[in-house]
Amino acid sequence: MDAIRTARARARAELIREIKESARGQLAVHGATGLSLRAVARELGMASSAVYRYFPSRDDLLTALLVDGFDALGGCAERAAAGAPGGAPADRWVAVWTAVRGWAVEHPQEYALLYGSPVPDYAAPPDTVAPAARVGLVLTELVREAELRGTLRPVERSGGTAGGVAGGSARGGVTETAAAGLPGWAAARLVECWAQLFGLISFELFGHFNQVVEDPAAFFAQTVRETGTWLSEAGSARR
Fold it and tell me: Homologous superfamily of 67-231 in CATH?
């Protein structure tokens, strides 16, 4: 019986993987708004009812794709941060930003699902919150580490220290809980950097840099070095 259950579990996992792969192909052609369970079933040669047993609705499939995408991106950021153990926070900050952009460039359609226009009539459920926060948590830990090392450089702010961040939250990034223990100015700066990271990537991938930035990769590299300076006592990340 155990062998039968194992075989069934493997078959189920493989079919779910195939459904997701088909759905990702649809994203590349039609975007998230054009995702259709019936179209997935046709491509896989299945009855629609069979697909609905695994994903009862389009929204369920979208949620699964979102969780997979956020987990893949978050894992990429975590590996980049861990890739240089003992390295200065500013240097690992640069590595994380570079890795996040690299993943987005390699997976533009999945990135568009995560950070593109909201899908009409779809509301992301709580299941997506923890995966969406992974990149923000990596950046938060680097700031905390810099503070513990005594290399975090204060950023002067006008109109208050927290910039309206300490009591609020940012979905998929720096939440009030994640930033707990950081000075208000540091939490605000962290959210600014988080928004800048994904803003730069989105502008590049969605064509907003056309006729403005000739070399988006070089522009990104320069910007990430500049943003990393506040984690470095010397005032500059390693070049």
Answer: Tetracycline Repressor, domain 2 (1.10.357.10)
